[in-house]
Prior knowledge:
The chain is α/β, with parallel strands linked by helices. It is 32% helix and 23% strand. The chain contains twelve helices and 15 strands. It has a seven-stranded mixed β-sheet with strand order 11-10-9-12-13-15-14, sandwiched between helices. The chain has a six-stranded mixed barrel with strand order 1-2-6-5-4-3. The longest helix is centred in the first third of the chain and has 19 residues, at 82-100. This is Class I SAM-dependent methyltransferase.
Amino acid sequence: MPHMISSDRAVIEWRNESTQKPPKAALYLHEAGAERILKSAYEQTATVWTGDFHNAKQVLSALKKRVRKPSGKKKTADVQDMQTAFHSHRIRQAQQSRVLNMLAVEIGAGFVLDMPRAPDVSAALADVYGEANHEPFLLPLNQLLGFIGAHEWHKKGIALPQLGGRIHVPFGVFSPIRGEYLDLLAAAPLPPSATGIEGTAFDIGTGSGVIAALLAKRGVPRIVATDTNPRAVAAARANFTRLGCADKVDLQTADLFPEGCADLIVCNPPWLPAKPTSDVETALYDPDSAMLRGFLNGVRSHLKPNGEAWLVISDLAEHLSLRESGFLARCLQTALLEVVDVLQTKPQHAKAFDGNDPLAFARSRETTFLYRLKAAD
């Protein structure tokens, strides 16, 4: 969110993709050590680096070592209060991010970074912001590096064997790097009517479009994919064109359901009921399980006779004590839905095996599920 702040040069716009409050002031420096930048950060003053770009990256690395230094307290799998552990982890992440984001650079008109040994960042910034700026603005260096990395991944794409192709995901759109849920979607038996001449599926909260593309590959002749994130809608549209399924997918900007009914309705909602701190986190965190509840409560009225609803979700929230173990069953009962079948798999991503991860005690127990649901009689 952009804000105007005062610097020792002028009043200038401050941009930050997170919900953090902007600094109270900014100070331009040709170079500075990590300790000085930290001292200014704790005084709510950002440091705007004007010197060598690679030196700035080295100082940022030094900052990360300082703010992410382990507390020295031994972590064990026997955590008494898992919910407290999760929220403490989130608070630490937010505090560290705020401090690191106090090292910034000035982006000139046309997305120009005028620093010695600086790369051309115009394409990466255009990927995030669209039309080029006419006035300079300040941007945390850590976020700029994230934009650059995301842009490279956007260009390269992510190879998904379930699709036989690549999904290209820009910054601000959830990336399907956890492929185990795609294995479940590729294996689940489709309702017979979904692949008939009039077969229709809805992909609720399509994101990058990966689920809609997978359904098209599996033979569903018409899919309606919905999302409210403009970046996701643009990314999904481009992915459908690349994968050759744009003629099968009707992409709509809609909150949850489109009009009409379908033979199959699929939703992969955010798995954790917590508050997101940036747009990209909305794919991870669902306050009070609002999207999950909205999907379950509304899906019955959008199903054709003998149609199915597929819910993709993990039990990580239960292992973190963020959700009671009987929560989903109660939601299904309230929504008048019954379970046809449950497919499940264990996560294969790196964090699931990282004993140093602060949430390893929960991740090691996590299971990902695909619930096949139908309207109860």
